[in-house]
Amino acid sequence: MGDTTGLQAAKRAKKDEFYTQRVDIENELRHYKPHFKGKVVLCNCDDPRQSEFFKYFTENFEKLGLKRLIATCYKSQDVDLFSQGECKRAVYQIYEGDKNGNMTVDDDEVSIRYLEGDGDFRSAECIEILKQADIVVTNPPFSLFREYVAQLIKYKKKFLIIGNVNSLICKEIFPLVIHGDLWLGASIHSGDRKFGVPDDYPLDAASCGVDENGQRFIRVKGVRWFTNLDYPQRHETIPLYKKYTPEEFPRYDNYDAINVDKTADIPYDFNGIIGVPVTFMDKYSPEQFDIVWQASGNTRACAPKEVLQLLEYHAHPEDRGGCAVINGKRMYTRILIRRRKEEGKKS
Ligand SMILES: C[S@@+](CC[C@H](N)C(=O)[O-])C[C@H]1O[C@@H](n2cnc3c(N)ncnc32)[C@H](O)[C@@H]1O
Fold first, then answer.
1. Atom 27 in ligand 1: residue holding the nearest Cα
2. Among 284, 281, 282, which Cα is nearest to 339's?
3. 347 and 268 in contact (C-beta within 8 Å)?
């Protein structure tokens, strides 16, 4: 039993060892410069000797006007799980800027301290460090993403973190989206992203490879930034050009809502509830639409009663817990949205 658990932990740990590339960090961070002035930034799933997040913030410390940068790294008790695990104890590092003005990060400018435990972001000592931070920026372990976000919300932290787009609709995160406490970041809206992987990572899939510097990588689909930091593009509305017709936009069998298969086709003159694909979230502006709920396998169990009433939801034999159904055919998850009243008045 112990072995099985160890094996599972090892598998999970391996799955979590993806290293974010500098280009993706730079492309996203350039949208948020004003948020960082005078702030304490924490990267709490980052080995400072290897994390591009830590390197980015040390190199841009003065440009961003940061107050302090802290990075904590996680080391499993089983060091062998990690190819990079040359350090037996978890450490954290603090950087407070270029003290001698030589424009480089010198060893004596980075203070290295040991943690008592393994650096788990949920441990009491890491929570104490989290409390000191204003903004948390990292790519957390995918297997613990929901717990990770819940902790950031609990401690009322600003954050900019990497996750998978499917996490948006899970029952722990979707309510945050509806209430405007979390949204997608500015730079990644489609395609896949390259992540570095440890040297012993098996290159057994078409999505894996070795780059020109000999670094193993994997391409991952569905990657997005998740944040509660505002940026101007998020307020740009989607230009709508289609007129509503019942033929083109049929009603669901089990919801009082119409179906739209492509975000760009949302009709400009329909004021009821509209079901759109999850990729709508890449274009979502809170000034243009309200998110009412989602039509998915979780809806019947998770949506509040008054929301189900508003949606005029009636269980359908084909809906598997609340997926939208048209003429007896079940759809993929739909986000149920409604034009904001002020928007409706414009046209
Ligand atoms: C997806 S990787 C990203 C690493 C780094 N943040 C980056 O972007 O390059 C997630 C990291 O979280 C670490 N990790 C796994 N479980 C953790 C935990 N409970 N607490 C803190 N870090 C953890 C893993 O060791 C792994 O390095």
1. 17
2. 284
3. yes
For residue 188, how far is its CA from the centre of ligand 1 (angstroms)? 20
Ligand 1 atom at shortest distance from the alpha carbon of 75: 25
Per-residue pLDDT tens, the chain, 347 aa: give them. Answer: 334 444 454 555 567 889 999 999 999 999 999 999 999 999 999 998 889 999 999 999 999 999 999 999 998 654 444 334 445 679 999 999 999 888 888 888 999 899 999 999 999 999 999 999 999 999 999 999 999 999 999 999 999 999 999 999 999 999 999 999 999 999 999 999 999 998 888 888 889 999 999 999 999 999 999 999 999 999 999 999 999 999 999 999 999 999 999 999 999 999 999 999 999 999 999 999 999 999 999 999 999 999 999 999 999 999 999 999 999 999 999 999 999 977 655 54
Rounded to the nearest angstrom, the distance between the alpha carbon of 227 and the centre of ligand 1 is 18
- How many angstroms does the Cα of residue 46 sit away from the middle of ligand 1? 6
322/333 Cα distance (integer angstroms) = 9
173 Cα: distance to centroid of ligand 1 (angstroms): 20
- Which residue ranges have their beta carbon within 6 Å of ligand 1? 16-20, 45-46, 51-53, 74, 119-121, 138-141, 144
Residues recorded for the chain: 347
Integer Cα distance of 314 and 291 in angstroms = 20
